[in-house]
Amino acid sequence: MTDALPPCPDCGSAFTYEMDALLVCPECGHEWSATAQESDVIRDAVGNVLADGDTVTVIKDLKLRGTSQVVKVGTKVTNIRLVPGDHDIDCKVPGHGQIGLKSQFVKKVTK
């Protein structure tokens, strides 16, 4: 059955396996969606794959356009939603409300 699965897009290993809706590489630990194209995958600043409902931390002070407010480094944002476009994360930031973030300025919080 492993012959029908694609190799890992990160390391090229042929030993990939299915886990629920994801494909997993046992050699490098990379996980990806079996239905999504690699170009459709949204990654955080360090390369972790993001998904709807994830919790992320802001890694850089971000000035909010049109206001004097700043989203401080270390701000934890829960239950993100991925959207197409330049600002690819839609979320509610505590103390600031609903805003769009760029994935390059966040890091996924692992449990």
UniProtKB/TrEMBL annotation:
Against InterPro entries, the record matches this protein to: YjdM (IPR004624), YjdM_C (IPR013988), YjdM_N (IPR013987)
Q: Which SUPFAM superfamilies match?
A: Prokaryotic SH3-related domain, Zinc beta-ribbon
Pfam families for the chain: YjdM, Zn_Ribbon_YjdM
Q: Which GO terms describe its molecular function?
A: hydrolase activity
Stretches assigned to the Protein YjdM C-terminal domain: 42-109
The keyword Nucleotide-binding belongs to this UniProt entry's keyword annotation: no
Domain Protein YjdM N-terminal positions: 5-33
Q: Which UniProt keywords apply?
A: Hydrolase
Q: Which PANTHER family match?
A: PROTEIN YJDM (PTHR30305:SF3), PROTEIN YJDM-RELATED (PTHR30305)
Family membership, please give it: Belongs to the YjdM family.
Write down what this protein is called. Answer: Phosphonoacetate hydrolase
What species is given as this protein's source? Pseudooceanicola nitratireducens
